[in-house]
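Notes to self after the Tuesday call (sharing in case useful).
The group wants a holo model before anyone commits to mutagenesis around the pocket. I volunteered. Ligand is 4'-deoxy-4'-aminopyridoxal-5'-phosphate. Logging inputs and output together so the record is complete.
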Amino acid sequence: MDLFKKCDYERLKQVREKGIYPWFHVLESRQAPVVQMEGKRMIMLGSNNYLGLAEDERVIAAGHEALEKYGSGVSGSRFLNGTLDLHLQLEHALAEFTGYEDAMTCSTGFQTNLAIISAICGKDDYILSDRENHASIYDACRLTFAKMLRYRHSDMNDLERQLQSVPDDAGKLIVTDGVFSMRGDICCLPEICALAKKYGARVMVDDAHGLGVIGPGGRGTAHHFGLASEVDILMGTFSKSLASLGGYVAASRTVVDFLRHASAPFIFSASIPPASAAVALAALRHLRRHPELPTHLREVSDYARKVFVQHGIPLKPGAETNLAPILPIVIGGTQETLVVAKRAYEGGVFTNPFIPPGVPEGGGLLRTSVTATHTPALIDEAAGILAEALKC
Ligand code: PMP
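Result:
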């Protein structure tokens, strides 16, 4: 069979023919609550710029300065010629903020998950992973020869049942998103940590959507539960609250030092460019100086949830009480989901549609999210447009 047969993707063709292709819309402005997209004013309900810092002039200025001082790129990996004092400052600030001994940065969050899991887990180990974990965790597990056991989403009985099936003397890693990216719900960290203790497993949390969002001063999921000392490995990304690009892992000095010397995705890839590192550092410092920002974000997202419910917009069950600014709207069928996304887009609201295989068959949804800089007036306007788009 021709290797390229799969590239002739029938489903994609159908979506294009029906005029409901929803991806790769072109932004022509900054990430902001209102953006310009393909020549049109658009209310942005699809950004992870949770704290609004991607358009903050002070954060942008830090990027400019770094570009001037260090140039445009590092042309090499942290391991070799690509370590800047900026990277070290950023790692130090992250370790301090999250309460770990040490931290290490990678060029994306995706790469960070690959870097951690591929180095930590080997052929005799077991990885217990929530079914709704991010795709990068799935790919990271595939990079190892470890056995991956997926437990039902936040189902602690299922996690325990799977832990019981693992040989006592095997290495075990329980890995979970802190805040789940699609539903916006928070993992059952206290139960996970208790099970980890009972069965001798290590715990890793992907806090891409937790940092800057929950926990005291935005310190994330582990601090939200007061369990930072029980999470062995914390990872996160700069592409959301910290308004940049890159990822980090925070852990004990021993673990981070091991990763620095044993992790192929880290060692063999160029480090974060100066402007992006400086932006992440400036955003983190800004968050430290403004611990009230996550509280404000929470007020905005509570307002959005209330207004959505008033407009009869069907949020995914459980999402009415989310602490994170993620508001998943239940649609159902694939075509229906894409049609509603298109109608919303034409009405002036950008959302992110998710269809199978990203979600189960029949579980199509529009992932919407708000940022600390969305005003009540914008949320009211967007809810009206979404409610109209849903009437089809
Ligand atoms: N983990 C989670 C939970 C995510 O949502 C994402 C990005 N959407 C990543 C990891 C990857 O982060 P990045 O975009 O920085 O590669």
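Two things stood out.
Residues 108-110, 134, 136, 177, 181, 206, 208-209, 237, 239, 247 surround 4'-deoxy-4'-aminopyridoxal-5'-phosphate (CB under 6 Å).
The chain has a mean pLDDT of 97.
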